[in-house]
Write a structure and sequence with these properties.
Blueprint: E1 8-12, H1 20-33, E2 36-43, H2 46-49, H3 58-77, E3 86-91, H4 94-105, E4 109-115, H5 118-122, H6 125-130, E5 136-142
Parallel strand pairs: 1-2, 1-4, 2-3, 4-5
Length: about 140
């Protein structure tokens, strides 16, 4: 029997879209490799969006936003039929935070989705991650 190729997969989820296809692909691969599986969602840091000129209690807004994101993440992961090692919900720069998670948790494959559309030619999270993350990547084309 050959040694599994990957030991720890990290799936980068965007909570706004349908993650069913992406999560199913990651689960199938993790299962075939007998690998650990973790998920990460990198959310916006409200302090970077709003300037000091805006009169907001940014910590309260950030906490409410993260609570909402946590609820959406829990809903998505409720249908996952594979044990998750970690559920990471972090704020900040996508590339930096994913790179940190890859290094900290010994991830050897990052799985992320890519919408094939006009807008993805201009702004692509997958392309940003390719230039920053030191592990192998699997980019799953997503419909819609």
């Amino acid at each position: 029997m050959s040694q599994p190729c990957y030991q720890h997969l990290l799936v980068a989820l965007d909570l706004e879209g349908d993650n069913t296809q992406l999560l199913a692909r990651a689960v199938a691969l993790a299962r075939s490799q007998h690998a650990r599986l973790s998920v990460i969602h990198v959310d916006l840091n409200m302090a970077e969006i709003y300037s000091e000129l805006v009169d907001l209690d940014l910590q309260t807004v950030q906490d409410q936003h993260l609570d909402s994101a946590r609820t959406r993440l829990d809903t998505i992961l409720a249908h996952c039929d594979y044990p998750l090692e970690r559920r990471l919900l972090v704020t900040g720069d996508l590339g930096e935070r994913v790179q940190d998670a890859v290094a900290q948790y010994g991830v050897d494959l990052l799985v992320c989705g890519h919408h094939q559309s006009f807008w993805s030619l201009l702004v692509s999270s997958a392309r940003q991650l390719m230039n920053q993350v030191p592990c192998e990547m699997l980019i799953v084309p997503l419909k819609g």
